[in-house]
Amino acid sequence: MANGFDYESPLNRLLGVTIPQFLNQQLDRQESSRRFDEQMLAQAAERRQRQANFDRQQSSLDEEREFNKQRVIKDDLYDIDESLIERINSEGDLDRKKVLAEKLSGQFKTDKGANELDAIMSSVEGEKENRQSDLDLYKEIGILRDNEYTILSKNVSSSGYESQFNTIVNNSIKQADLADNRDFQAKFSDVKFIQSKIIQLQKDKSTYTIPGTPERASVDEEIQGLETQLKSAKETLNQYFRGESGGDTGGGTGGNKKHGGGGGAGGYISSVVGEQSGANSSVVSKPSISDSTNYTITIGAGNSNMSNGSNSSAFGSTAIGGGRGASDGGGGATSGGSGGGGGAFESGPGSGTANQGNSGGSSGPTSGVYPAGGGGGSQSAGANGSGSNGGNGGAGEASSITGSSVSRAGGGGGATSPSGGTPGSGGAGGGGAGSEGNGTDGTDGLGGGGGGGERNGSSPEGGDGGNGVCIIRYPLEAA
């Protein structure tokens, strides 16, 4: 070292300072570049992640928008289906509802609507089967009569069926004094429950079991046991409704001598639910009938020779015989089941018996053709004689106890003289017609009053009253 300074050769400086500094600078630049690249990669990855998140959110929003769009479309389409369903359900008649459903089936837009339509179609058939099953049950028990069963069966699909069914059934139960009978109501509920269970098991058997398998045999055995229970329960209920009766007694004789009034019809009594006794009155209670008891039934004869008909009696009720018609010289009209008609110079009619019949009609003027009054009928009073016309006999009550409608206990027609008058006709229900000669007899088996007679030589005759009848309808167990 000269002159007090350390000398560093260029080579040493190059090797000791310059090159290391250069290398360090290069390493720093490389590290900085590496960190920059890593930062760029991280930022790129972050951007990709943000984009992916955005894409997922956008996809989710798109899916939600599409879902909502489809839901709105489906809702709009179901609104169409719903309006069709409401239209179908507004039809009360089951047959017309089914036809309408089949007609509109091609217009449904959604599966939901189509499923509801299938349910409606199935319910229509099920409801018809249930209604008919109820009718069969109620007929077997005795709640429904044959004609009521026939009418309801024809109307089983109609919109007014339920109202008609309930009215008839409730009237029958009320008439039998069973509306508040807890024992009857409990047994009736048991019968309906057993029947519904049998119906369900029969459906399940066909759907869920195979013929010849133990499962099918088990269901068949259960059904057989329930059917035995049902038969016994129906027989018990049938006792409540056994025995309906209806009928009338003998009609009265038409007036004879001359200017004779029509004979009154025999009294009419009925216990048939839904019908009437005489004079438009309510039916009497059904008789209590036992299989092991003998009963005496008396049928009244339609008497002749200006006399009342005889009484009829059955099951504690007595129908009064019809009153005779009045006539000039033969006496006044008499009261009876229905009263006899008035005759000339004996103008006042006979009265009917309460809840059995009606009064006869009064006679007309005591001059000219001397028109006599008609005899009273069980449904309406005899008509008055008037002008040149004899009074018509009063109409009889109609009953379907035998399965078809028949009128009984009609009054006899009033007579007129043979100088241009028109005698009264007999009332519907066996009443005999009045005459200008001999009166017509009342019809036997209907208890009609005889027609009034007029002069016929020396022996004018009023018609005889018709014999009475007693009809009993008694439910029997089907063979």
Description of the structure:
- The protein has seven helices and seven strands.
- The chain folds into three domains: 92-103 and 123-174, no CATH class; 176-241; 246-479, no CATH class.
- The strands form three sheets. The protein has a three-stranded antiparallel sheet, with no helix packed on it. A two-stranded antiparallel sheet has the order 3-4. Strands 5-6 form a two-stranded antiparallel ribbon.
- 42% of the residues lie in helices and 5% in strands.
- The chain has helices at 10-89, 94-104, 111-141, 146-154, 161-175, 182-208, 214-241, and strands at residues 244-248, 268-270, 312-314, 317-319, 397-399, 406-408, 469-473.
- By secondary structure, the protein is mainly α.
Helix content: 40-55%
Order of strands across the widest beta sheet?
Answer: 2-1-7
Number of domains: 3
> What value does the Rg take, in angstroms?
49 Å
